[in-house]
Amino acid sequence: MIEFTSIHQMLESAREEGLPLWEAILQADCQSQGISREESLSKMAGMLRAMKEADGNYRAQDRSQSGLVGGDGGKMADYARQDNTLCGPFLSEVMAGALRMGECNACMKRIVAAPTAGACGVLPAVLLPYARHFGAEDNKLIEALYVASGFGMVIAARASISGAEGGCQAEIGSAAAMAAPALVHLQGGSPEQMANACAMAVKNLLGLVCDPVGGLVEVPCVKRNVIGAMDALSAAQMALAGIESRVPPDQVLDAMAEVGRSLPHTLRETGKGGLAATPFGQQYMHREE
Ligand code: SF4
After folding, report:
1. What separation in Å is there between the alpha carbon of 247 and the centre of ligand 1?
2. Whose CA is nearest to atom 4 of ligand 1?
3. CA 224 to chain centre
4. Which atom in ligand 1 lies closest to the alpha carbon of residue 208?
């Protein structure tokens, strides 16, 4: 477990050591887990490999056991191949990747739960198309994963990465807040820009409730991975443009924790509020009984 409990502390530690942020996070990982640099790097390379394999294992004809989810990743990939798509080739590919991974999870396939199974689509959806479009090698993606894990650990320590605890802001929001600084790293941005990207990604999804239909990690979870990926990209782009979060990043995480505590239990993964409580959601529950 990486031991940073604030973004400020994480950035200061890297600055004091004169290390790039990803390297400081790697070294903290080695120290806290008592493993060598090679072991840590090999573990992170394994995560990247597993993300790629999960993406490659997607089949558009697969359906989740409930039948509510499946095929949308294929539809988006088909649309992405057309000329004049609304969002262009890169963003369309990102959206297709998020849907694919979310559907793989709903279909019980092996995924990388980073930070959680429900939000597993966000990181690969931005990293894998980024590598294809911008020509990033695996070693750069592994560095980006360290950046993502460092911010993820601070979020877990300071707020939450659990929908049952903090609502969907803690799952999809956290995934976006990990992916955004990872993208800033890939684009050569500064640690401060990474911190701002993380903060803006959280702020943009603050208060997002956890309301899965039937209590299953399917609806709206799969499609929320798309908005998490798009949130990460827009927050990263704002940070790279020099735009800053007015509220300091650690205070944003504290607000997220407070909002999570304020959410009623019906909106924290109980499947009793929000979309789960709609006539459709109730009908579905009834059908299952
Ligand atoms: S709605 Fe709940 S179960 Fe679904 S992804 Fe969000 S936090 Fe996870």
Report:
1. 26
2. 221
3. 10
4. 6
Which residues are bridge partners to 249 per DSSP?
Answer: none
Average pLDDT over residues 115-144: 98
Decide: 175 in ligand 1 pocket, CB within 6 A: no
Averaged confidence pLDDT in the chain? 96
Q: Is the pLDDT of residue 6 over 80?
A: yes
For residue 211, the ligand 1 atom closest to its alpha carbon is 1
> Rounded distance, CA 170 to CA 113, Å?
14
Per-residue pLDDT band for 286 (boundaries 50, 70, 90) equals: confident
The three state secondary structure string of 134-172 is HCCCHHHHHHHHHHHHHHHHHHHHHCCCCHHHHCHHHCH
Kindly report the protein residue whose alpha carbon is nearest to atom 2 of ligand 1: 210
What are the structure tokens assigned to 2, written together? Answer: 């990486």
User: How many CB atoms within 10 Å of residue 56?
Assistant: 9
Least confident of 116-125, 133-142, 262-271, 280-289: 280-289
Ligand 1 centroid to Cα of residue 118, in Å, is 6
Are the C-beta atoms of residues 22 and 144 closer than 8 Å to each other? yes
**Model pLDDT, residue 76:** 98
